[in-house]
Amino acid sequence: MTHSPTPSAGGCRSTPVLKERGQREVFCGLTGIVWLHRKMQDAFFLVVGSRTCAHLLQSAAGVMIFAEPRFGTAILEEQDLAGMADANAELDREVERLLARRPDIRQLFLVGSCPSEVIKLDLARASERLSQRFAPRVRVLNYSGSGIETTFTEGEDACLASMVPVLPQTDARELLVVGALPDVVEDQMVGMLEAMGVGPIGLLPSRKIGDETAIGPNTVYALAQPFLAETHAALGRRGARHLPAPFPFGEEGTTAWLAAIAEEFGVSREVFDAVTEAPRARARKAVAAATETLSGKSVFFFPDSQLEIPLARFLTRECGMTAVEVGSPYIHEAIMGPELDLLPNGPRIAEGQDVDKQLDRARADRPDLTICGLGLANPLEAEGLTTKWAIELVFTPVHFYEQAGDLAALFARPMRRKAALRLEAAE
Predict the structure, then answer these.
(1) Is 114 annotated as ligand-binding?
(2) pTM of the complete model beyond 0.90
(3) Which domains can be identified in the chain, with CATH numbers?
């Protein structure tokens, strides 16, 4: 069974990439904890950082009154930063108190931050020490969420990559779907794959440690998120094989993603169509409701989440928009190649960021819609540009067929708002 979308004439895989290395405007990788702690129900994320780190997480995740969250911050005080206290001993005490108070914790992630990395606190060694101490009840891992090293969505990548080496070994043939998805979206995806007869299906991350899948040379994996380059490399080192495909955004991307898996597992065209026909039709109808607003309009992507290329493909091929510039923090060809093949030739493709230069290009292009981070949105709005916060595209369920209309509506909403304000001002 083969089903793949027709590559765009020319595509963008061979388009010269404008590589920029200057001032960046992005959130740090700690932000990924906001969705990871909800996904992994028996995990706790302990940020080893400053009060600023604690305020960031509390503000981003909201204040939880009725339930204790599964994240916290081990505060590095002035004496820790000045080397007047043994930070490792302090960390051990904090972990001991936490695990005594929270016996439900089965996985503990020590998350590095800018302060912990500035003082060279070795969290890898600390996680090994604490794993030995609290095994087998608790598994302790570490990764960096520091803004020094990571951008917005790389926190999830670092977290999942830290888990790959400790997953069990197997020679069984299995599918592993990689990337954190909201539970309702994940259930939809698993339901469609199981209806096709695909299985067994493993998930990374799993909701609980006991649900983790084993991996090995007969494991094939599909990425559900485009920002997982380190996890992709870690799985390759374990012998697993990647299924390249466009990402499941919109009707076309979802169909292509599912088709790559279906072909690998020998699903017939008849079965594939029977499972996907109805949700595909619903997706096309839902997207069409937003296309009236988006068609013929131009869009400019600042680099932020690494979702930019798949989203540009969705907007141009399914919503009738024209991409002027598509910027992404990193472009991994093995992961993004199928998307670049589909993205219609024409936009500038930029990797990395020099924010002042990119702002100049956006002002010169005057796009109808600009996708950017929170720090740039308000200034650009003040200059008359219509903007969409990139962060909302990560926090909102947007994958697969049933969310395709919601995804399109996220882009249409600011344009409709701008039109309504103009109409009100004219009256």
Answers:
(1) yes
(2) yes
(3) 17-24+269-426 (3.40.50.1980), 29-150 (3.40.50.1980), 174-245 (3.40.50.1980)
